[in-house]
Amino acid sequence: MGEVKLIATTQSLFCTRVEWALKLKGVEYEYIEEDLRNKSPLLLEYNPVHKKVPVLVHHGKPIAESLPILEYIDETWKENPLLAEDPYQRTKARFWAQFVGDKCVFGAFEAACLAEGEEKMKAIESAQESLAFLEKQIEGKKYFGGEEIGFLDLAAGWIPHWLNVMEEAGGMKLLDAEKFPSLHEWAQNFIQIPLIRECIPPRDKLLEYFNASISYMRSLATS
Amino acid sequence: MADEVVLLDFWPSMFGMRVRVALAEKGIKYESKEDDLWNKSDLLLKMNPVHKKIPVLIHNGKPVCESLIIVQYIDEVWNDKSPLLPSDPYHRAHAKFWADFVDQKVYGPARKLWAINGEEQEAAKKDFLEIYKTLERELGDKPYFGGEKFGLVDIALITFYSWFYVYETFGKFNMETECPKIIAWAKRCMQKESVAKSLPDQKKIYESVLDLRKIRGLE
């Protein structure tokens, strides 16, 4: 089916969701680790607009932005479909993937970066409001995709691992098991899946990464 | 059973305009309901509880939110004519990337051109023009962003054209001078009936912005 390369970084939740999709479809690929502090000519050539990871390269042609990449993968390799056939179901998945995959990530990170105080409490409340919407979506289902994981599970897949580490580094609790029992259960189920588990970065390295990012952001706020 | 299509909209919204264009491209009959953004309707809050924003397409009672997601939905449901996305996966991904770029990058600086005064406005002008020049490079010599056919990226971007008189007046620049290919492309798009009938007149938008600026104490 042609050579597939993935330009990525280990810590990035946006990159891991692409790896999950490739593995789910049984696609062989070459993983190219990028150093974002010293961007390679390859990255600058393949993603000149944003200069970010992930970038998928297939037949020498680059695709950037994780959600378009997931859709590309789904359209190119037909095993284990990520999106439903029905347009309304596909659209719902896209809407929620955009919400949880973008807005919620930055909301959580923002809450983590704030030092203790009223602003932090407000950010936590706002992030939890977002989780409440997700709770409603998963209620009564094993996965967002139904019996099998799908597009939205991959987009939300940062929650069981990355959110957990962000909570520790940021001194906060967002995914409260009592407030969000269905979402909490989904998170436990999702992270147990072997192909999901084998792609996530080691917890200690991720914690180091978030500790450093959060310290840096907090120092900017006080300078 | 006939399709029931309702669009919750707000006439100067460039996001609402995108959906109008898509519906017109496909020749879909729909009911338009104007929402008052300072006094949001119960229907809007019910149909879009997450973002509480227009546009919302309600198809046979089921809501679809976020303008570019709505455009893709329209393309997939009414797939018998005027495809808005290319058929091959690579070009589809490319179109989604650029539509996403427009969504992420244009609105912020564009808004600052008229909604504030001072230093930040100058910085916004610089950003705005840089972004449009990037888009101009991507367009190149193609008639549309999608190549020969008008599509998703064109729809995502053309609606900002109705606001150009506002941006040029408050930003004190001329788009024809700064980005001639963009203007040529915009005029080409405006020759399409679906676009011309979906975008309000630039002067009408300008007048509504003048009112808004007065309310915000900027005039």
Question: Would you mind describing this structure in some detail?
Answer:
Chain A is an alpha+beta fold and 223 residues long. Chain A is globular, with a radius of gyration of 18 Å. Chain A has helices spanning 13-24, 41-46, 66-76, 87-113, 118-138, 151-156, 158-170, 181-192, 194-197, 203-222; strands at residues 4-8, 30-33, 55-58, 61-64. The mean pLDDT of chain B is 95. Chain B contains twelve helices and four strands. Helix content of chain B is 57%, strand content 8%. In chain B, strands 2-1-3-4 form a four-stranded mixed β-sheet, with helices on one face. Chain A binds chain B through residues 49, 58, 61, 63-65, 67-69, 71-72, 75-76, 87-88, 90-91, 94-95, 98-99, 133, and chain B through 49-50, 59, 62, 64-66, 69, 72-73, 76-77, 89-90, 92-94, 96-97, 100-101, 134.
Q: How would you summarize the topology of this molecule?
A:
The complex is a heterodimer of chains A (223) and B (219).
Chain A: E1 4-8, H1 13-24, E2 30-33, H2 41-46, E3 55-58, E4 61-64, H3 66-76, H4 87-113, H5 118-138, H6 151-156, H7 158-170, H8 181-192, H9 194-197, H10 203-222
Parallel strand pairs in A: 1-2
Antiparallel strand pairs in A: 1-3, 3-4
Chain B: E1 5-9, H1 14-25, E2 31-34, H2 42-47, E3 56-59, E4 62-65, H3 67-77, H4 89-105, H5 107-115, H6 119-139, H7 152-158, H8 164-171, H9 175-178, H10 180-190, H11 193-196, H12 202-215
Parallel strand pairs in B: 1-2
Antiparallel strand pairs in B: 1-3, 3-4
Task: Give a nutshell description of this structure.
The complex is a heterodimer of chains A (about 220) and B (about 220). Chain A is an alpha+beta fold. Chain A is about 60% helix and about 10% strand.
Number of strands of chain A: 4
Q: How much helicity do the residues of chain A have? A: 55-70%
Strand content of chain A: 5-15%
Molecular shape of chain B: globular
In the sheet with the most strands of chain A, the strands line up as 2-1-3-4
Q: Helical element count of chain A?
A: 10
Quaternary: heterodimer
Order of helix and strand elements from N to C terminus of chain B: EHEHEEHHHHHHHHHH
Radius of gyration of chain B: 17 Å
Mean pLDDT of chain B: 95
Task: Point out poorly predicted stretches of chain A.
Answer: none
**β-sheet strand percentage of chain B:** 5-15%
